[in-house]
Write a structure and sequence with these properties.
Bound molecules: fe (ii) ion
Order of helices and strands: EEEHEEEHEHEHEEEEHHEEEEEHEEEEH
Largest sheet: 6 strands, mixed
CATH class of the largest domain: Alpha Beta
Strand content: 25-35%
Helix content: 10-25%
Length: 366
């Protein structure tokens, strides 16, 4: 990409095509201290109140800056780098390439907790790995006084649900969810019945004195890409049919209609939902249902196959952070008479991790 000036107009040359930059786009970027608050970077003027036929008076282009004087008497000096950044309508985080993985994954993205972690470069690298793999594990995180809440709020803010600000996962009498038993949990995503679905789940191991109770993870992205390649018809129907996910307990009824595989505006992977205990397929035409059920069976087989699943033990102090829109999680069964298994969990949303990542990137000029 290259900028060029011609008769008080600014052009950019991208992939051999030359186009003019709208003068109003440049006028909106007038950035002196009378126009932009220097600490918040918020505008002190309202561009919707400006006349639309903004004209340029004078231009100067150097190696790093573009200087523009407008006919309304304003002036701006914009870095070329910042103009280049605005060619993308995606955040830097969306550009982090997802790495597909399966049971061959050996490096479980372990990062050691330290007291300064939330202001440390290490957290930046952990968050980058989180976006690449969909999970990361912090080791030696303090286990006293519900520290998970401090941890989550030091990245962003806890997303409270009807399970509370955080939840204690151990087997108990009269549970309102199978998570609170010692039964095995096959791979699933959490809370598909919420709108919006919590983005990230944190699971902090406080105690794990049982021989079973292994944690399992499956990359929904890898699986759905595989399905798309091998069984395109199955992939297609799972991206098209919205099903009803439901959760009921004595105090609340939660329902949400959504696709099992959700795509973005470019038809690329966005999110998976999978929780066969909670899903209700609408009464479609028999042929369509036939295809849908085959597709759901196939994706369930893939999610549950050992080829895609990693299995590992969480030890006291380990805090697992899972992308709940991308990964499925579960656990193996355990025996309560062997000892205690106690995990604490909570949710945060993407704005927390994105905000932290952008902040650390700026702080360390990365
Ligand atoms: Fe879960």
């Amino acid at each position: 990409m290259k900028l060029e000036l011609l008769k008080n107009k600014v052009f950019y040359n991208l992939k051999g095509k030359k186009r003019e930059i709208h003068p109003f786009w440049l006028r909106e970027r007038v950035n002196g201290k009378d126009f932009v608050d220097q600490s918040t970077e918020q505008r002190l003027f309202d561009p919707t109140k400006l006349k639309s036929n903004i004209k340029i008076n004078k231009l100067k282009l150097s190696k790093y800056f573009l200087e523009v004087s407008f006919k309304d008497g304003t002036f701006t000096k914009i870095s070329i780098k910042s103009i280049l950044r605005e060619f993308s309508n995606e955040s830097d985080i969306k550009l982090i390439k997802k790495i597909k993985w399966n049971s061959n994954l050996k490096d479980l993205n372990y990062f050691n907790f330290n007291e300064n972690l939330f202001e440390d470069k290490l957290m930046f690298h952990a968050l980058i790995n989180f976006y690449k793999y969909g999970f990361v594990i912090f080791k030696n995180v303090p286990t006293k006084n519900n520290f998970i809440i401090n941890f989550a709020n030091s990245i962003g803010s806890v997303r409270k649900t009807n399970f509370g600000e955080f939840f204690n996962i151990k087997s108990k009498a009269n549970p309102n969810d199978l998570a609170y038993t010692s039964l095995p949990l096959s791979p699933h995503t959490d809370n598909p019945y919420r709108n919006p679905v919590p983005c990230i789940q944190m699971l902090h191991c406080i105690e794990n004195r049982v021989s079973g109770g292994y944690s399992t993870l499956v990359d929904g992205y890898t699986v759905t890409e595989k399905l798309k390649k091998k069984f395109p018809k199955y992939h297609e129907i799972l991206t098209q049919v919205k099903i009803r996910f439901q959760f009921k307990d004595p105090s609340v009824v939660l329902e949400s209609w959504a696709e099992m595989i959700q795509l973005d505006q470019y038809k690329a992977f966005k999110q998976v939902r999978f929780s066969p205990r909670l899903d209700f397929v609408p009464l479609l035409d028999k042929k369509q249902l036939e295809l849908f059920y085959k597709a759901r069976k196939k994706i369930s087989e893939l999610y549950n196959s050992n080829y895609f699943k990693i299995e590992f033990k969480l030890n006291p102090g380990d805090l697992l952070m899972i992308d709940n829109h991308r990964l499925l999680h579960g656990r193996t069964a355990y025996k309560t008479n062997e000892g205690n298994r106690f995990l604490q969990g909570c949710y945060i949303d993407y704005d927390s991790t994105e905000g932290k990542l952008n902040y650390l990137k700026k702080k360390f000029n990365l």
